[in-house]
Amino acid sequence: MSSYKIIIITISLVFFSGCVTKQNYFEDENRLIILGLDSEVRGDLNSSYNYFNKLYVVTNNLEYRIKEINLLIKLKELSTAKLEIKKSLKIYKNNLMLKKLLITIYLQEQNFDKSLKIALEILNQEKEIRNYDLISSIYLLQQKYDEALKYLDGAYAIGHSEEILDKIITTLYIYTGDKSKAISYLETHIRLYGCSKKFCNNLISMYAEKQDVDGLISIYKRMYKEFKDKIYGKKVAEFLIFKKDFKGVVLFLESSGVNDKLLLDIYKIEKSYSKARDLTLRFYKKTNDINYLAQSAMLEYEGTKNKSDKKILDSVVKKLKEVVSLLDNDVYQNYLGYLLIEHDLDLKGGMELIKKALQKDKNSVYYLDSLAWGYYKLKNYKEAYKLMKIVVDKIGLEDSEVIFHWKTIKSSLKKEDK
């Protein structure tokens, strides 16, 4: 037996299992059911109609009546179908399926008034979501959006169906243009019943259209909490940074752990050196990446109020010496070299490190400034002035440290010339 015939038999047992136990069951009933369904599947609707018509005539079973009327509608025999429905409604006065079939025909005929009249009768019989939805659909076909929304609201009030809410939002946002009300519906639903991805993404699109950054932050926070997806957490951070709400982004990143590398960058921007140092040390312990050891040392120095504290200097220098012994990195070489010069720990060693850094980037004003300061410490004021002149010509006098070095070196050179 072919697979589709097996399916047909299964369908017949499911849809018509109630028929075989009735008193008007006849011996050929199951065979006719299978033949009727098989004909329908093959597209032979006329034969299918004939089988179900015979089944109804013999058994007087309403299920067969409804099936044959359905087939008449599919065959576009609307007048005949309508006549048969009306005849059947005299017998089965309150049958909802027959009434809905009649609505189907009236809608195809674009007779909205009669469709609506029957739909209202159905709603009076049965206060179900689907019946409110049916009436709203008829109004939508007529572009009577306010009336449609009234019945969609009725449907939504029964079970807070997402399918119904989606129709409300679409009607408000696209057809009536009441975007604020659409957003309000979504916000209320999400607050009370949770945030499905579909509705949260709808709300994101709406907030984006009206450039509501606070709304975007709020919904991405909710999605991150709901779905635990770091993508949403990163979006929260991005929009907080866009607002320049660094305090807010720090609080969010600290509590969520969604992006510790970004948190480290924010700590640096906010000059939260102690927190930044602790985080880099955590990274170092986790990864053994020597770059994090270097960063922790630099942050330790930047974060201390007393830059001459021997304990701090010893700690920082020790770490940086370990780093530069393993990494040929100009940034770390310059930083350590400058510390050794600034605090008179090792002028010669400091100068050598800065010169190594300049070999990699000979135009760096920061490295030239460090080297100039080294020459100053060695009392070679002319060489110090020459280098500082290059720095000042390139970047001007806006950096406080550059200003201090420039004034100090100029003053020392003048005294020497006298």
Keywords:
disordered N terminus; 418 residues; rod-shaped
Overview of the structural elements:
There is one protein chain. The chain is mainly α. 80% of the residues lie in helices and 0% in strands. The protein has helices at 3-16, 29-41, 45-59, 62-74, 78-91, 96-108, 112-125, 129-141, 145-159, 162-176, 179-193, 197-209, 213-227, 230-242, 246-256, 260-269, 273-287, 290-303, 310-326, 330-342, 347-360, 365-377, 381-395, 400-417. It is rod-shaped.
What is this entry, summarized?
By secondary structure, this protein is mainly α. It has 24 helices and no strands.
The helix-and-strand class reads mainly alpha
For the secondary structure, the number of strands is 0
Write down the overall mean pLDDT.
91
Q: Which sheet architecture does the biggest sheet show?
A: none
Name the poorly predicted regions: 1-24
Radius of gyration: 40 Å
Structural shape: rod-shaped
Number of separate helices: 24
Helix content: over 70%
Strand content: under 5%
Order of helices and strands: HHHHHHHHHHHHHHHHHHHHHHHH
Distance between the termini: 116 Å
Please describe the topology of this protein.
Layout: H1 3-16, H2 29-41, H3 45-59, H4 62-74, H5 78-91, H6 96-108, H7 112-125, H8 129-141, H9 145-159, H10 162-176, H11 179-193, H12 197-209, H13 213-227, H14 230-242, H15 246-256, H16 260-269, H17 273-287, H18 290-303, H19 310-326, H20 330-342, H21 347-360, H22 365-377, H23 381-395, H24 400-417
Helix pairs in contact: 1-2, 2-3, 3-4, 4-5, 4-6, 5-6, 6-7, 7-8, 8-9, 9-10, 10-11, 11-12, 12-13, 13-14, 14-15, 15-16, 16-17, 17-18, 18-19, 19-20, 20-21, 20-22, 21-22, 22-23, 22-24, 23-24
